[in-house]
Fold this sequence. Notes:
This protein is of the alpha+beta class and 96 residues long. It is built from four helices and three strands.
Amino acid sequence: MTAxxxxxxxxxxxxxxxxxxxxxxxxxTEMVFHFKDGRQVSREWVKPKRQMPPWTEERREKQxxxxxxxxxxxxxxxxxxxxxxxxxxxxxxxxx
Length: 96
């Protein structure tokens, strides 16, 4: 993005230091580049999508089985006790 704002094919630190005064980060996705000559250029940053291959049916089934296997009777009992403890302490609001 910085190279694009500078009009370069790729980032060049020397050009950046020479031409950019500072950068304001306006939001999680917007930046304003302040040039030393007084110009301002606003750009929006878009988070790139993850390039993960889609899950196969085999992988999906394996994951499902691993999750089911992780809920042992001991773990279920421990989770139940923990939830009872949380509910006894926290006031959740009226039951409907």
